[in-house]
Amino acid sequence: IVEDPPFFGEILVNGVPSERFSQRDIIDGTVVYVHTSGEIGLQKIEDSFNLTLSDMSEEWTIGGNTVNGVRVQVTILPVDNQSPVVTVGTQFTVVEGEKNVVTPFHLSALDGDTPNDDILCTIVVQPTSGYLENISPAPGSEKSRAGTAISAFTLKDIRSGNIYYVQSIHKGVEPVEDRLTFRCSDGINYSQKHFFPVVIIPANDEKPEMYMREFVVMEGMSLVIDTPILNAVDGDIPADELTFFITKPPKHGHIVNQLTNGTVLIDNFCLDDIKESSSIIYEHDDTETKEDSFEIKLTDGKHPVVKTVLIML
């Protein structure tokens, strides 16, 4: 008779829960203990139950002592049967052309029967505008692996701050997002596939381009400087403010801003100033010469471009 039944399981006889069984049932192998309490984690646990002989049983003696009951100890061993549960957390951001570390706040996983550090994540689909790198040295080496794309990493790598997303593809293109697809494994069981999205913060990384054609001015006259003869383009998104600086003024004239109350000599102006109804003007000083020129520098606040404007008189 089963007294004080087990806490983490139950006794089955011929597959049916039972509180009593015979010695014949044991001999026939029909009595089993079944663990029913679910996941036990990483460590083994102990269970137990008591058996008492019924009044109908023959007397049981061991070493001359009559035995009325026994206590059965059960050791339940852990089994790796749980898949990692992955969490993609805080939004991951990176500045265009730079890199940022992937932390446990961005990506984590839990596995009830595997140490977290042992969980391995594999990249199923690589990002298109960058790559993941592991800056730690390879086993047996002292040299960092920074700059080399990886296809797998452990949660220990992330916890140690070794995994970075590198935003490497940005020249001539302006990516604003990226993503990779990955899944994690404890060595036996796999998680579902997950997306890891990357938000790319625009940066001033593109050098502006300046376009011009030869200025043609009648002697003693002036010429409106507008976009058909002087223009610029910036590849950054959003576009940076573009400014022109007169680094070497013309020898036979002046660059001025024509206002309602007169003209003002200037040494710089913005692209927006000459896009519509430009008031930026080259004035010839009426000297006897066939040509003039000035040097102009275009900048987006970071990258300068210098060219010489030719003026035919």
TrEMBL record:
Repeat region (CSPG), residues: 83-185, 206-299
InterPro entries, per database record: CSPG_rpt (IPR039005), FRAS1_ECM (IPR051561)
Keywords: Glycoprotein, Repeat, Signal
Keyword Ligase: no
Swiss-Prot/TrEMBL GO biological process terms: anatomical structure morphogenesis
Name of the protein this chain belongs to: FRAS1 related extracellular matrix protein 2
Organism field: Discoglossus pictus
Lineage, top ranks: Eukaryota, Metazoa, Chordata, Craniata, Vertebrata
